[in-house]
Amino acid sequence: MLTVITLYSTAQNEFEPNYDESKVPVFDLPNPLVTFNGKEVKTINDWENERRPELLEFFIQNVYGEVPDHLAITSFKIIEQGENALGGKAKRKQIELSFTKNGEELSYNILLYLPIDVEKAPIFLGYNFYGNHTVADDPNIIISDAWARNNESFGITNNQLTEQSRGIRTNRWAIEKMIDSGFGLATIYYGEIDPDKNDMTDGIHSLFYSKGQEKPKSNEWGSIAAWSWGLSRAMDYFEKDADIDASKVIVFGHSRLGKTSLWAGATDQRFAAVISNNSGCGGAALSKRKFGETIWRINNSFPHWFCDNFKKYNNNEEQLPVDQHELLALIAPRPLYVASAEDDKWADPRGEFLSAYYATPVYELYGKSGISNSEMPVVNNPTQSSIAYHIRTGEHDVTDYDWEQYIKWAKEYVLK
Ligand code: GTR
Q1: Average pLDDT, whole number, for the chain?
Q2: Domains of the chain: total
Q3: Would you say residue 1 has pLDDT above 70?
Q4: Are residues 300 and 185 part of one domain?
Q5: Interval 309-359: pLDDT, tens
Q6: Using a 6 Å cutoff on CB, does residue 398 contact ligand 1?
Q7: Rounded to an integer, what distance in angstroms lies between the CA atom of residue 194 and that of residue 230?
Q8: Closest ligand 1 atom, CA of 254?
Q9: Which domain holds residue 353?
C-alpha cells in the first residue's frame, strides 16, 4: 500500500454526498508499482509484462466489463463531403461505419473537419452528447435518427434529434481553434453506439447476444466499454484514411464521455494521447475518497454504465484492490491531460488531481514527467508535462479555456 491520504476519519451517511474535505476517510491507496502479490515493479519490462496486464484485466473484469467478442468494421462509406467548410479553412467528411453480426446490424457516423492546408492531420476524437449537428452551425451535418434523451431547450421530444438543435453546442467544440492550429476534429454521436439508458437490449450490445439473451454477463461490457469500443473502431477507420495521421489521434471526452475516453486510451494503445474533461467518479477521480459522486451512487443512477461486477464495490470502496490513478497509469507513457472545474464538486476536482499525481511514478519509469507536486495548482494555472492538469473557474462544462490548454499542450507533447 502506497500511502494514507488525509485527515480525519468521520462516520458518514453513505447516501448523502460528502463535500467536506475533513470528512474524506483515511484510506490505503494501492501502489501502481507493486503487483497484487506484493512484488515491486522496477522496470518497464515488469510493468508491461506483469503489472500492467493484471491491472488492465482487473478493470476489464470488475469495472468496465469485457467486450465479449471481436467485431471488425463490416463496411464503411463516405456519405457526404465538402471542401469549403468553416469559411474555406477546412474540409468536411461524414463517414458511415457499419457492423453486422448474428444477423443484426448497427451503423454510426463520424463527422470530420480537417484543416485544408495539412496533408495528414493529427486529430482530436471525441463523442458528443446531442448529435453531430450540434457541434457546428453547418447545414450539411446529417442529423442522427438514433434515440436521444429528451431535452426541451434543445427541441428534443419523443427521443428524436431535430433541426432545432443545430449548432447548439458550438460553445463546447472550439473547432476553429483546432483547425487554425493544424488539428482536425472527429466526432460521433454516442447514442448511435449505445443509447444512454438502462436497457441493454439495444445498441451495439445486442449484436453480441446469443439467442434470447437480453443483457451482458456480469463481467461483460456496460455502456462505457461499448462507447469506448466505438472509438477504437473509429480508429480502425482512421488507419485507412489518407487524410489523417492515425499515429496522432488524441481521444477526448467530457464527463461520462471523459470516463469513456480514459477507458479507450487504457484499452487501445493506438491512441496517441488522452484528455479527460471533468470525468469524475469512474473516470479520473479516486473512488476511495468518496467525495461527491460515489460508486454506490453512480451504479444506482446509471446501472448500465459499468459491468455488474462493479456493484460489489457499492459502499465498499475499501475492498477495491485498485483505484482510478491506476486507470490513468494504464495510459503511460502516452500524454494524458486531466482537467477539472472549480464548481464541479460532484466530480471531485481534488480526487482527479491526486489521481494524476499518483499515476506519475509509472510515467517516471519511462523517463517521462507527470505531476510531481502533491499541492493542487491554483485555478486557471495549468501544469503541463506528459501528464497535464488544470482546474479552471466555472462549472461542469467544456469551454474555450479548456480547449486552448489542450491545443497548446498537444502541440508540445503530441506533435513534437
Ligand atoms: C452525472 C453523473 C456524472 C457525469 C455526468 C455527465 O449525472 O453523475 O458521473 O458523468 O452526469 O456525464 O454529465
Answers
A1: 96
A2: 2
A3: no
A4: no
A5: 999 999 999 999 999 999 999 999 999 999 999 999 999 999 999 999 999
A6: no
A7: 9
A8: 12
A9: 21-64+272-413
